[in-house]
Amino acid sequence: MDVWGDCLTIEKWQHFVAETLESGNSTPVFNINPNDTREFDAIFLGGGAAGRFGAAYLRALGGRVLILDRWPFLGGSCPHQACVPHHLFSDCAAQLMLERTFSGKLWFQNLNDKIVSIKDIVELFRTGRTGPHAVMNFQSKEQLGLEFVLNAEFEIIDAHTVQVGDRKFHVKNLVLALGAKPFVPDIPGATLKGVFTSQTLVENLDFEPGNTIVVIGGGKSAIEYGCFFNATGRRTIVVARNQVMPMLKDAESRAYAILMMEEQGMEFFENAEVMEIQGDAQGKVRSVSIKTSDGIIDIDTDFVFMGLGEQANSEIIAQKLGLETSDKGFIKVNRHMQTSVPHVYAVGDVTGPPMEMFKARKEGVCAAKNIMGQASEYKTADYPDFMHTHYEACWLGLSEEEARQRYANVKIMKLPPDNPNGLDVGLPAGDRMMLYLMAKPRMSGFQKLILDGDTRKILGATHIGYGAKDGFQYLNYLVKKGLTIDDLADMDELFISPSYFIQLCRLRAGDPHFNDM
Amino acid sequence: MDVWGDCLTIEKWQHFVAETLESGNSTPVFNINPNDTREFDAIFLGGGAAGRFGAAYLRALGGRVLILDRWPFLGGSCPHQACVPHHLFSDCAAQLMLERTFSGKLWFQNLNDKIVSIKDIVELFRTGRTGPHAVMNFQSKEQLGLEFVLNAEFEIIDAHTVQVGDRKFHVKNLVLALGAKPFVPDIPGATLKGVFTSQTLVENLDFEPGNTIVVIGGGKSAIEYGCFFNATGRRTIVVARNQVMPMLKDAESRAYAILMMEEQGMEFFENAEVMEIQGDAQGKVRSVSIKTSDGIIDIDTDFVFMGLGEQANSEIIAQKLGLETSDKGFIKVNRHMQTSVPHVYAVGDVTGPPMEMFKARKEGVCAAKNIMGQASEYKTADYPDFMHTHYEACWLGLSEEEARQRYANVKIMKLPPDNPNGLDVGLPAGDRMMLYLMAKPRMSGFQKLILDGDTRKILGATHIGYGAKDGFQYLNYLVKKGLTIDDLADMDELFISPSYFIQLCRLRAGDPHFNDM
């Protein structure tokens, strides 16, 4: 199928993607300009975050670029199996927590002891995901003018040749943007029916999970999906080899996040390990054995979720090209995104953590620049971060503990303030938090700004609540440029702003030796 | 009652405020340091946004300051009658729109044709508002060390003397931070029972409104409260003398916001006027006569909401001190916040629009600086703005139309993209938007970045959705400093970020002559 020159509407793309996924039709879609006689400066293998952004940037720089992807859409695993379903599930978790908190009050229905269907939500996602797929195909083709082959099984012949069907593409550079997939550990029973990762959950779930769910892992994916399962009304047991939520380093913020999860009924085993998943005669999960500091515990369940990080989609190709990989299988690259083989670059999740959108996209851009002769280096540093519990948790810069190790005169501004009533006080507030503020103030969030009292600079910030995620992107950029309490005090807040940083700073900024707040 | 030296917990304050409001007890609460023999540098009359922030700043600068407030709490009308109830009602509107959209689907209850109690939500607010009040009293006393008299009827003797009961306070400067209250026009029937402003709604509502509500006004308050009434399931008719939502100048963004309201069933009369509110024999609202371009229409209703802006709480004091006021009654000040009378300043809503939190607080700070000898000027300019519909609408900088008038090479980046399917496509997405994205994509928001293709600078931005309000504060600060497409492309986005500005810019930034997106 050749689509160059046809303007495919978003609607047409949506039908095409839906049908192709449904039918398993393996006909590639070629969108290649027959009138452009230039050799490709690069082929991006994989059109996900790293590949699509890298290709767009390379074309913007004036180069010629081709994307090959095995899926019938561009955008990669994010809209298909990763960020988008995660956000849908986290939205459901937030919504369900609210409905459960107000169950039977005001206009809210009674959800007490009611279990909500996970399968229905997964099926909604499977139907709905073709919408974003279609937009990205439209944007890539009509707005960005990208050339691509979708729904394509490709074979790498060598570092300058890739084959799709009977068509061979010669190219100056290869960029491997192959992505990653959830890691499944070698636990007995890991392949039983009823064991899921974030990927297989949305692809394979075909039964309604029972009342108990075991989540393996303590990191982002484990907690994000665990909170969703919990919010559906199921007993949810999180088994973490070490700590839960270790990435949120500010101890007080982390404690608030965990306390709120516990108050929703989440159960945590830290420093624990799943020994075995037992199956029944039909090969379905029946129970899980967990080794805890108090001995081995058996939990009856038909649903186990593995949230244990990612492994690279690199094996065959790395071997074929003779690329150096890390002991975990990630493709090694230098700061120019070059692999150990000349003219072969790698970008995105396939090069290893952090498995974040900005990192994948910026690595794609970095490779594009280098290929086009603009010497460029990239390495993640000082980036903002977030994850979902039932809330959005955001953080940037240093934790209070890290700040106190490095600075002599650390100042803290936070809400709620330290006080004898702890969390049961009516601030902070913000959009999506107002019902909690009025009736259940301990649930209305926690936020903290960490400052250096000497230079007056912001050192770090955390926010557990809603509506600050977007702001943390811009705030982080400002903090890296040396933002001070005085700069913040001078901004114009949009009140009630989810983060209270501007106003808290303004209350103190007049003082050359300002105190905590 | 004298509380200096007692540490009052937030809990104690909450009980005190609740009891005082309930009982109408008029005993003032004195929190004045008996050991400080200095004369007050200033008395702030009114401890709302302007007064409390001004006083805190003045004290931070080393001055001595006293706040007098007639209410038993600091913080002013915002937490008591204005921003906080508005945010509660807007949160309910967003929540109810979601529940109605998914009525009977997934776990959602069937809300079709069901009317939700406004009175219950108002009562929840009346109980809950003492929480924020208590935090602000605690913060002001224990953290900021402010001196104040609450629950105080005060009399101004002259520009240097104020009296509370039998105590006279001598002071170098007076700062009038008296606030404003909703304007009620002189329409026949405006004093009938059933006619409310944002203020009287939360104070006086004692019946459940019927099925039809008439909202007078087309500005922020009218639309914000109107969307809430609509979301409760009532027919809601907005009567605007001119345009609806004129402050959102970007035509395309405004059209999206209005379309979404119309799809929720809101009815708008623009260029229309309420002629008369008719009452029944008991003095309750019975119907409203509206003059439209098609003639006069009568609407049966028992509930009319006036959302027509604010008038200053200035009359008596302005007269007493002989202050110059505007024809609308706002106290005239220069850029130092000085009134026409020496040593008398005015700050906040009492000086006129914009009635925004940052403006009130920064005027308070400006007065404090000048009083303490730090020459300071303040005038609002280039501030970000927002309002609620069922969504959060944010904007900053120029609209597309304004930009095209001033710049020759305007570029636009937006979501959803222009395309033959209009809004029925699956992007943007973001927190709180995921269910819409999956099942009702036209409801998942609209956003737009306006750029100068020559200098590459951001000229403006708009966002109709959720979760971008906090970010617009920081983004506006950056835009005023000359933020470019290249700066944005270099930031680290927290994906799925409610605003897509970083990633849209990155897709284009490589091109010296980038196109629309």
UniProtKB/TrEMBL annotation, chains A, B:
Family: Belongs to the class-I pyridine nucleotide-disulfide oxidoreductase family.
GO MF: 2-oxopropyl-CoM reductase (carboxylating) activity; dihydrolipoyl dehydrogenase (NADH) activity; flavin adenine dinucleotide binding
Enzyme class, UniProt record, top EC level: oxidoreductase
GO biological process: 2-oxoglutarate metabolic process
Cofactor(s), names only, from the UniProt record: FAD
InterPro entries: Class-I_Pyr_Nuc-Dis_Oxidored, FAD/NAD-bd_sf, FAD/NAD-binding_dom, FAD/NAD-linked_Rdtase_dimer_sf, Pyr_nucl-diS_OxRdtase_dimer
Documented EC number(s): 1.8.1.5
Domain FAD/NAD(P)-binding residue range list: 41-364
Keywords of the record: FAD, Flavoprotein, NAD, Oxidoreductase
Signal peptide as annotated in the record: none
Protein's name in the database: 2-oxopropyl-CoM reductase, carboxylating
Domain Pyridine nucleotide-disulphide oxidoreductase dimerisation: 384-499
Pfam families named in the record: Pyr_redox_2, Pyr_redox_dim
